[in-house]
Amino acid sequence: MSGNNIHQNHRARIRETFRKAGVEGMPDHSLLELLLFYSIPRKDTNELAHRLIETFGSLRGVFDAPYERLLEVEGMGESSALLISMIPGICRRYAESSQARRINLSEPEAAAEYAVKKYLGCRKEVFYMLCLDALGNLLNCCKLSEGTPGSVLVDKRAMLETAFRNNADKVIFMHNHPNGIAAPSKEDLTVTSELAGLLAGVGIRLADHIIVAGDETVSLAQIPKFKTLFI
Length: 231
Description:
Blueprint: H1 3-21, H2 28-36, H3 46-56, H4 59-64, H5 67-71, H6 78-98, H7 108-118, E1 126-132, E2 138-146, H8 156-165, E3 170-176, H9 186-201, E4 205-213, E5 216-219
Parallel strand pairs: 3-4
Antiparallel strand pairs: 1-2, 1-3, 4-5
């Protein structure tokens, strides 16, 4: 049997395993190997899949890796790096579309879960405002600003205009710390205080400010010494 036939049979077995067992029935390196079939059509991808996981520590680490870092791995080409870089954004879009029904974020747990999904795979610091009706139903999720991995600036006038445009009764702020922990910084507290004052002046309540770092979240409204910002 030629090497090419062996290679084709191996690919067929991997695909058949996925069809029968799904994601749950396959180890991480096999899932990555299968994905790479579609950017590397005529070469063995098993070794590269193992090399990627060894380099970045886990399957999640591979998908979170910047495009430029992926290209540094031996055997990676532009098509493969682009394909892998697309995965977090596609997953995020899928999570958002699966929540297309009316979403109620009146409970802190629901808001935190929504925030984690929104930042899935996000490598830059992004500041969102969730516009809610009086019952806590989500009217719109609005991006107010996007910055570097460590900082972001919010246009206060644009924030107020966005809240009015969406007829918000109350809002929730959320932003992420891509390279850190979910604990609020001094700057986070200053910005929250300033924005809360502006909103209160026009009759819109700030319900919470959620900070996300990976799977971890911090709700400032749930921290006793910050509760006065959210009255």
